[in-house]
Amino acid sequence: RFVSNVGQADSQQALIEVVRFTVNTTVGIVGFFDPATHWGIARRDEDVGQMFGRWGVPPGPYLVLPLLGPSNPRDAVGGVFDSLLSPFMWISFVTGVPTYGAPGLINVVNARARADERIESARQSALDYYVFVRDAFKQYREAAVANGG
Fold this sequence. Notes:
Elements: H1 2-7, H2 11-26, H3 35-38, H4 48-54, E1 63-65, E2 69-71, H5 73-84, H6 87-95, H7 102-125, H8 129-145
Antiparallel strand pairs: 1-2
């Protein structure tokens, strides 16, 4: 999130990310807890795909990637950069202990489990589920690039 904020020239949000990181790695015991949120230091999800969007890179066509879900070429490439910036990638690289992508896989499975109720609700209420997901994803990413959501 810090790199994305710096790339978007959002120095205030980048500073907030530094403060959140410092609080959560010290008081939050190496990030196991999130006291920064409880102290009113809000988390704002940012990623490299959003940074590319702020730079004017168009999203390209809608894609559905296996295991990862909705995306577009801009966000898929941004996701590769996000994974390279992940601390788990560097822990594996520095220590030589292979993680085999386990943290990323756990995150994908957890996100899907947390969204299950919303997914089922959308499936039941949408006339065309594919169109619903495509349009919702496009609107969500447009708002995220504009830092509106």
